[in-house]
């Protein structure tokens, strides 16, 4: 099942932070799309639930040294 994930982060302070987070999240198995919104301090991703979870993505970001304030998920209906 495909899921849309939105992770609210603490304020991002530099574009290189954004790039580092984008690369780390995109490199996870099961991540289909990823976008880091610098001004909103959010990460949006589409994932395959069979391969990863929103909690796994939050841990990846926290392991980089960024706080994840909130995690939202939404099931995506198959086309």
UniProtKB/TrEMBL annotation:
It holds the Pfam family HMA. GO terms for molecular function: metal ion binding. Keywords: Metal-binding. Residues 3-69 form the HMA domain. InterPro entries: Heavy-metal-associated_CS, HMA_dom, HMA_dom_sf. This is MerTP family mercury (Hg2+) permease, binding protein MerP. It comes from Secundilactobacillus oryzae JCM 18671. The lineage of its organism: Bacteria, Bacillati, Bacillota, Bacilli, Lactobacillales.
């Amino acid at each position: 099942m495909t899921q849309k994930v939105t992770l609210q982060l603490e304020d991002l302070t530099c574009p290189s932070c954004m790039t580092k987070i984008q690369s780390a999240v995109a490199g996870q198995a099961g991540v289909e799309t990823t976008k880091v919104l610098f001004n909103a301090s959010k990460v949006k991703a589409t994932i395959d639930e069979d391969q990863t979870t929103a909690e796994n993505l939050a841990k990846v970001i926290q392991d980089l040294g960024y706080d994840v304030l909130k995690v939202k998920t939404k099931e995506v209906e198959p086309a």
